[in-house]
Amino acid sequence: MQTTFDIVIPLNSSSVWDNNELRYALRSIVEFANYGNIVIVGYKPSWLKNVIHIPCTDVHHSPKLRNQNIVQKILLACNDDRVSENFIFTNDDIFLLNKMEDLPNYYDGTLNQYLESNPLLNLLYRKVITNTFDYLEERNLPTIHYDLHCPIIYNKEKFKTIFTHLKTEVAVKSIYANIVQGNSVFLQDNKINKQLTKSQIIENTESRPFLSMNDKAINEHLKQFLIKKYKNKTQHEN
After folding, report:
1. 8 A C-beta contact, residue 117 and residue 145
2. What is the pLDDT of residues 172-229, one digit of tens each?
3. Is 140 exposed, middle or buried (0-12, 13-18, 19+ CB in 10 A)?
4. What is the spatial distance between Cα 205 and Cα 191, in angstroms, rounded to a whole number?
């Protein structure tokens, strides 16, 4: 039985913080996860070392097909013999806050509940969620919302079976987890999408397993939080 998982991270060259998001995400992984290899699919920053790098250029430049670029990168990892059969997929803007002993499929409700609780969701992503619901409902599958900002375990063969010919823009984690139907655990998502004060950031990280952010959240308070929390340089940095 596989006990150590490689970690796959897709990356493009559009970082607004010189890829320091990736730097501190990797420091959090080294500190809090038991893992095999770090696999970067896409862009490789000059400071990065001791990783498996799979080059990949985004095929789709329209935001309407953003998830298709992510699927393309995951499929490349699935077809690479250097990557473990089961691997942890995560992103450069997800940070582990505590020891990751187990990794179930985290969800926060149904897809319809997600839409209802996010009335201001942008039209592009609302369409993604609607496409996902329609795809699953047509196949009499559960319609749980698994697309939280946290890591997930993928199996190479199962992922390829599902996504090799699926060209619709869908929520990838929700499609996979509703089809594979593994261990599911409720979790309140924890993504910062606006600038916060130091005390607000600390409050957002108390008793949480993960922290995520987008570009709008990056300010000096958040930078200093990450720098202080993940201060130890790792073997993946020059």
Report:
1. no
2. 999 999 999 989 999 999 999 999 999 999 999 999 999 999 999 999 999 999 999 9
3. exposed
4. 10
User: Is residue 152 one of the residues assigned to a domain?
Assistant: yes
Residue 236: inside a domain, yes or no?
no
- 234 domain residue, yes or no: no
CA distances from 60 to 132, 158, 174 (A): 19, 24, 21
**Length of the chain in residues, anyone?**
238
Range of the domain at 106: 5-229
**Cα gap 10→28, rounded to integer Å:** 17
CB 161 within 8 A of CB 182: no
Domain count, the chain: 1
> Does the pTM of the predicted model rise above 0.85?
yes
CATH code of the domain containing 181:
3.90.550
Question: Are the C-beta atoms of residues 190 and 211 closer than 8 Å to each other?
Answer: yes
- Condensed to tens digits (0 to 9), the pLDDT of residues 127-139 reads 999 999 999 999 9
Helices (H), the chain: 20-32, 66-78, 111-117, 123-138, 156-163, 172-180, 198-205, 220-229
CA-derived radius of gyration, the chain? 17
Q: Average pLDDT of the chain?
A: 95
Instruction: Inform me whether the pLDDT recorded for 25 exceeds 70.
Output: yes
Whether residue 223 lies inside any domain: the answer is yes
**3-class SS at 167?**
coil
